[in-house]
Amino acid sequence: MSIDSPELLRDRYGAPRRQHRIGTRGWIGLVVLATLLAAVFVAWVVTARQAAPTFKDIGYEVVSEARATADFELTKRPEDVVTCAVRALNQEHAVVGWVEVTVGTVPEDRLGEGGTSSHRAAVRTTNLATTAVVESCWLEG
């Protein structure tokens, strides 16, 4: 028996490990699993976007050095409670006023197409504002 004979090596170190290979069925299973996960992710993203409130700035008015108003439209589901952050900016685009407006259930007579309603937010300012806009809106709870 030679020094490198397979029997001598197997006796000394044990049988070599078998390599596990993924067969055709295994690859098909992985592809199906990846496809299902991608479909669930896409459905989750679409559902989350439909539930998110949207807003559109309509106008603003600088009432005085200490006050401005922002007019905006908000689209949301009727049962949702939404808070919108409204900010007033000065000529250098610095924030000179900030307010959070919470909108709950809106009466049917105030709802427009697609659940859109109009709102006005009054913002107290520290200096003269040149504009007032909605920064973001989010669902409460």
TrEMBL record:
Entry protein name: DUF4307 domain-containing protein
Annotated membrane-spanning segments are 27-46
Its keywords, alphabetically, are:
Membrane, Transmembrane, Transmembrane helix
A Pfam family reported for this protein in Swiss-Prot or TrEMBL? DUF4307
